[in-house]
Amino acid sequence: MSSQKIIFFDIDGTLYNDEKVVPASTKEAVKAAQDAGHIAAIATGRSPFMYEDLRAELGISTFVSMNGNYVVFEDELIHTNPLDAKRLEDITEVAMKNDHPIVYLDDENMHSNVPEHDYMTEGIASLKLGYMPGHDPEYHIGRSIYQSLLFCPKGEEGVYQEYFTDAFQFIRWHTYSMDVSPKNGSKAEGIKKIVEKMDVDIKDVYAFGDGANDVEMLEYVPNSFAMGNAREEIKAHAKHVTSSVDSDGIMNGLQKADLI
């Protein structure tokens, strides 16, 4: 058997299909990789509280959360990179003027600055969490916020990109929503922290993803796989392309990589 590898999996569109369900073949493939002595890890835009059940189901204790800004290795927190508090307050003020709600996320919860809004309802519903954010317009004050969700329709993001790229990067994941992350944060940066912690050779690192927030990860990791359901411009950043999530994509990719 080859030396131990670590494999990072995105969640939405990679482990989860469109119904936010892990296909049976994916569960089988992840377990086979673990049984072969490899480490299965997660790299996601989601906060840890959003996928506790998934980690338990797959036996995963190492994860890169909130696009690289909250990193845990074997249940030990090893890296955090919160949003700039002053600039977060500034962007909140602009968003309120534009009727664009904001949700603040830390590792345990999420709260919005407005009680309800159609953009927020539709965007959060697409995640199929089964709940909505609480309402606390001061949730971001005096605490570390690692990511925000800005509910801004596609085409209306220009003002934010013009005035806030000194502190933030914006990654659209829904017609009505963008991730707001620290400018220097990414899944690739989070993975680097785990690679340093493990003192592992980068050639022993693998990654699977499908979305815009996976681009840096797919470029950084030498053994990267884009899912078949990814857009063509995302696939261009990966070293390999596997089949879609519902067509045994993880199973086929791990077999192609000779990990199972």
**Count of the domains:** 2
Report the end-to-end length measured between terminal Cα atoms.
Answer: 10 Å
Class inferred from helices and paired strands:
alpha/beta
Question: How do the helices and strands follow one another from N- to C-terminus?
Answer: EHEHEEEHEEHEEHEEHEHEHEH
Instruction: Extract low-pLDDT stretches.
Output: none
For the largest sheet, list the strands in their spatial order: 5-4-3-2-1-12-13-14
CATH-level-4 superfamily name of the largest domain:
HAD superfamily/HAD-like
Q: Give helix % range.
A: 25-40%
User: What is the residue-averaged pLDDT?
Assistant: 96
Task: Count the DSSP helices.
Answer: 9
**What is the radius of gyration computed over CA atoms, rounded to a whole number of angstroms?**
18 Å
Classify the beta-strand content into a percent band: 15-25%
Query: Main β-sheet, in a few words?
Result: 8 strands, mixed
The CATH topology annotation of the largest domain reads as Rossmann fold
CATH class category name of the largest domain: Alpha Beta
Word description of this protein:
This is Cof subfamily protein (Haloacid dehalogenase superfamily)/HAD superfamily hydrolase (TIGR01484 family). InterPro entries: Cof, HAD-like_sf, HAD-SF_hydro_IIB, HAD_sf. One of its GO terms (cellular component) is cytosol. The model has no long low-confidence stretch (mean pLDDT 96). The strands form 2 sheets. This protein has an 8-stranded mixed sheet. Strands 8-7-6-9-11-10 form a 6-stranded mixed sheet. Helix 1 packs parallel to helix 9. The chain is globular and about 55 Å long. It has 2 domains: 147 residues, 3-Layer(aba) Sandwich (Rossmann fold), CATH 3.40.50.1000; 98 residues, Hypothetical Protein, Haloacid Dehalogenase-like Hydrolase, Chain: A, domain 2. The protein has 9 helices and 14 strands. With 260 residues, the protein is an alpha/beta fold.
